[in-house]
Structures are given as structure tokens and as C-alpha cells.
Write a structure and sequence with these properties.
25% of the residues lie in helices and 28% in strands. It has four helices and seven strands.
Length: 173
């Protein structure tokens, strides 16, 4: 039942975004040395992550707060990698999809993460709190990092931001 609720939470986060309060004071910059400026990045188009295994962008061991259950291995299904309490999605987007991800009324902007424009949202589906961080790869491609942390729901967004730093640093320049 927990996995069904978790899958529903991941689906809800992928489909729609909800507001998340980012007042925890955590630094999520994860700056890369030699990264490009946001002005240069926003001019990039294309889908450089096409064909990339989304599970290569995050392993549970990269963020100790994620469930480290050795019997449950993250699995890729097309452009989505589902772990026990996280999901990574590589999204090809249109201009309107891009606008919704970053300028929607339910989205809170974050400081750039490792040189990538970022935004955060929160949802609650089936009693499970999920936090959703979106990262810009190009104006045509985004990476969504979703965390549903049932053990410590109050830390879900903090953990999602840590996971997003790992993912952002694995996105090729």
C-alpha cells in the first residue's frame, strides 16, 4: 500500500506543482567551478540529456537521508527513475511547460543550483508529503527531482534540495 501511495505522490508531483515555503535557510547553490551564467544558460536549447538513464543522475547513497534499502534498487522506465522515496524525471518541455515549471503560481524560485535555474514546490497526496525541485537543463529540457520522505516529512524539502544539488552537478555543461 505504501508503494501505491508513493507512486501516486510521484505522479501527482510530475503532473502538477504546489507551493513550498523555502524559509529553512539552507544554501542550495552547489556551485560548479567554471559554470556558465544564467543569461547564457537560458539561451541554450535542445535536449542534451536525450537517451540518458535518469538513474545515473542520483543514487540513494549520494544523499544519506534517502532510504538505503539494499533490496529496493532504483529502476528507470523511459525518462523516469523511481527509487524508494525519490524520483528523477527528464522532461522535454514546450515554452508553456517551461513557464509553468518556473513561473507558475504554485512555484517558489530557488537560487541557482550548480549554475542551473531552479524552483521548488510541495504537495501532499494520500497523506504523503512530496517536495519537487525542477532544474533547467535548457529552455527545452528540465530535470525534476521529487522526494517523498515518510520518516521525516518536515525534512522532505531539505532532502529534495540536497538531491537536486547532486543531480545538478551531474548535468553535462
Amino acid at each position: 500500500m505504501r508503494r501505491v501511495a508513493f507512486a501516486a505522490a510521484i505522479l501527482a508531483c510530475t503532473v502538477g506543482l504546489a507551493a513550498c515555503n523555502d524559509n529553512d535557510g539552507n544554501d542550495v547553490s552547489g556551485a560548479k567551478k567554471g559554470g556558465t551564467s544564467m543569461e547564457e544558460k537560458s539561451k541554450k536549447t535542445g535536449t542534451p540529456l536525450a537517451g540518458t538513464d535518469p538513474c545515473a543522475l542520483l543514487k540513494p547513497a549520494d544523499v544519506p537521508e534517502l532510504t538505503q534499502d539494499s533490496t529496493f534498487k532504483p529502476k528507470a522506465n523511459g525518462n523516469i527513475c523511481s527509487g524508494y522515496d525519490f524520483a528523477i524525471t527528464i522532461d522535454d518541455v514546450t515554452e508553456s511547460g517551461y513557464d509553468m515549471a518556473f513561473d507558475g503560481s504554485d512555484v517558489t524560485a530557488l537560487p541557482d543550483i550548480a549554475g542551473h535555474k531552479a524552483a521548488i514546490s510541495e504537495s501532499n497526496v494520500g497523506g504523503l508529503k512530496s517536495c519537487h525541485v525542477v532544474l533547467e537543463v535548457t529552455s527545452d529540457e528540465l530535470v525534476d527531482v521529487t522526494v517523498t520522505h515518510g520518516e521525516e516529512p518536515s525534512r522532505t524539502c531539505e532532502i529534495a534540495k540536497k538531491a537536486a544539488v547532486v543531480v545538478a552537478n551531474r548535468i553535462p555543461d
